[in-house]
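Quick one: structure tokens for this chain, please?
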Amino acid sequence: MPATPSRFLLGAAALNAAAALLHLGCIVFGAPWYRALGAGDAMVRLAAAGHPRPALFALAVASVLLVWACYALSGAGAIRRLPLLKPVLCAITAIYLLRGLGFAVLMPYFAGNSLAFWLASSGICLLFGLVHLLGLRQRWRRM
């Protein structure tokens, strides 16, 4: 009998997919969504002017997040095993945790973002990272 899929990695997949959909929403709904989701002023201005850069950036981020969702589903045991499953899931987890904990290092490079953005987005990334970490711990031997 196959093992029960990991609830944490299924949750991680859902979180990644939801974040991807939010980024795609920015493309569809434009500057107000970029602003609401914390994009810097320059990115919001470019989106309002119809420049393609914000949409391309949002599409790239959404694509990465959807790939991460697939890896979480694979790690959960819900879909077939993807290549390099353990190292990729470890890297995804590390990226989220580092982003969640290391925002102070990144802040000077993105001066257009508010402190509220940094605190909220870092908390979200930390949550995502912890869910991934719990899922990895739960399924490590079966991957």
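The chain has one domain: 7-138.
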